[in-house]
Amino acid sequence: MQSQDQITRQNFDDWMVPVFSPAAFIPVRGEGSRVWDQQGKEYIDFAGGIAVNSLGHAHPVVVDALTEQAKKLWHVSNIYTNEPVLRLAKNLVDNTFADKVFFCNSGAEANEAALKLARKVGLKIGGEHKNQIVSFKNSFHGRTLFTVTAGGQPKYSQDFAPLPKGIEHIEYNDLAAAKSAITENTCAVIVEPIQGEGGVVPASLEFLQGLREYCTEKGAVLIFDEVQTGVGRTGSLYAYMNTGVTPDILTSAKALGGGFPIGAMLTTDHFANMYSVGDHGTTYGGNPLASAVANAVFEFVNTDTVLQDVKNRHKQFVRGLEEINKSTSIFEEIRGQGLLLGAVLKSEFTGQAGRLMNIASEFGLLVLVAGPNVIRFAPALVISEEEVEEGLIRFAKAVQQFLNAS
């Protein structure tokens, strides 16, 4: 048997189903917003596990919560409830619009629960024809068959037909299209306040306010997918709090567990009570271990200090990226909120975001892409001013090499 010390990147190709194409190096240790690979090379982490590692790597708050709960109770099934999950539910209810929470293991599962609930609501209040779902082009809602169909990127769903029916995709930020699409037969509209995978594209306030108005008028459920924007990512606890718009259902995951798998669907009593015992379920969702970790993360993030730091680091990122752009003219636009930012490559570099991401890793920096033309930054919410500064220095060097090689 091969020892742990002999593990190499080649082993991925040998043993793993090829649905990913990982980097050539393997991270083995992290602390705060720094990561080290098998060779001991250090990286500053501007990727955050794709907006997951809200407190960075090995944060004492998360480690302590995990180890303390691990000594007590890991899993009991949903035949029983448990103390950590009830504490977490109370925190979410007390700090959002919601009255009730359903816990699962991922963002896709949270969106699955939300879409199923919306269909049940439609059936109960409007009959069998009120089952249509409106979503948006370039959106992303997960990888189950239902959520990948709800997502507005055909490349993720086209090979898995036949797909669930009754889902229409319209242009994001197009109020006229939304007004036309939302009818008496619409049971739900699902929208990301900022399209993350779709390029870090914020919704306009007018667009979200219009969706709220049209959903209320037609009796449709408004679902905010906050899997990527939630739990402090935008500088508010949830992005809907920046908009003046309150959804009927909100989904949360990623940063909620700080790296431990957990997802949540939040809604009001009115809609929650349309689900009955046995309508939906989960084996692992709401287990004590995940709930204890998520509760520690949530309570740490939900403070004025952390949320203000996110806003401060946002300004630092934007200033730094604009400085890089002054000397290189590589970006068309810098957009996003809080610590979810997208740097859009100019048209002459179309399709080359992945190449720039790989060059950045050579300079000891982890970044993301959001489609083929956008570099995405989603670091820990607690990343320091010094780490942002050093990371931007490394990114500037990567940009220069990228341009020299173009």
Automatic annotation (TrEMBL):
CDD domains: OAT_like (cd00610)
Cofactors, names only: pyridoxal 5'-phosphate
Keyword list, A-Z: Amino-acid biosynthesis, Aminotransferase, Arginine biosynthesis, Cytoplasm, Pyridoxal phosphate, Transferase
Residues given in the record as pyridoxal 5'-phosphate binding sites: 107-108, 140, 225-228, 283
Keyword Cytoplasm: yes
UniProt cross-references to Gene3D superfamilies, sorted A to Z: Aspartate Aminotransferase, domain 1, Type I PLP-dependent aspartate aminotransferase-like (Major domain)
Quaternary state and interactors: Homodimer.
Protein name: Acetylornithine aminotransferase
Gene name tied to this protein: argD
